[in-house]
Amino acid sequence: MSFNLKLNLAVTSAAVSGILLLTTSAHAVIVESNSAESESENLQSSVSCENLTTVARLGESSAPLFSWQTHEFGPEYTPQKRCEIVSAKLDAAVQENGGSFDGLRLTNGPVNHRVVICILKPGETDCNPDNLLFTLKHENERNAGHIIGQLLNINGPAGETINEDSGEQVVVDLGKWAKDHLHK
């Protein structure tokens, strides 16, 4: 239990014979609050690139999402560059979603004849150029579900966090992942 102090300050002025007189009055109110509840309601999620790793944050808590090592896409897409691009795209999706992972899903699907990983916002069902996070290496295209599980370090029964719809497309509930990995 904590207490918040709210201070209302009123400033009034009056001119008397060319001299400006300022007076102040203060009114303090002590408000009881449950600090743990208030803090958790105000915490915003974010995503950033740190040491070649896409990291998710909720307040002081953080968890790695993806580690970037591949050089398959040439010198213009170094691991650092891919980390920065994907982290920025994922953070934009989280911020557009009210600073929360709830309702966001990570999945795989085809875009421009390649298998990609994308972020689905509420109401979206398929990957497209606008929600694309990154393209899988050719040798990983057939194992997208396994790759997503490895990237997110998902342990436990697949049905809890990963939902394999057709044997090809895998859907990960990022809200559930965040609850499991980002401690409040």
Topology summary:
Elements: E1 2-16, E2 19-33, H1 35-42, E3 45-50, E4 53-58, E5 61-67, H2 79-96, E6 105-111, E7 114-120, E8 132-135, H3 144-151, H4 158-161, E9 162-164, E10 170-173, H5 174-181
Antiparallel strand pairs: 1-2, 3-4, 4-5, 6-7, 6-10, 7-8, 9-10
List the main descriptive attributes of the protein structure presented here.
2 domains; five-stranded antiparallel β-sheet; alpha+beta; disordered N terminus; 184 residues
Give a written overview of the molecule:
With 184 residues, this protein is of the alpha+beta class. The protein folds into two domains: 2-38, no CATH class; 44-181, no CATH class. Helices cover 25% and strands 40% of the residues. It is built from five helices and ten strands, in the order E-E-H-E-E-E-H-E-E-E-H-H-E-E-H. Strands 8-7-6-10-9 form a five-stranded antiparallel beta sheet. A three-stranded antiparallel beta sheet has the order 3-4-5, with helices on one face. It has a two-stranded antiparallel sheet with strand order 1-2. It is globular and about 40 Å long. 23% of the residues are buried. The model is unreliable at 1-40 and 155-167 (pLDDT under 50).
Query: Which outline best applies?
Result: globular
Mean pLDDT: 74
The end-to-end span amounts to 17 Å
DSSP helical segment count? 5
Largest sheet: 5 strands, antiparallel
Question: If you compute it from the alpha carbons, what radius of gyration comes out, rounded to the nearest whole angstrom?
Answer: 24 Å
Query: Helical percent range?
Result: 25-40%
- H and E order: EEHEEEHEEEHHEEH
Q: In the residues, how many domains can be counted?
A: 2
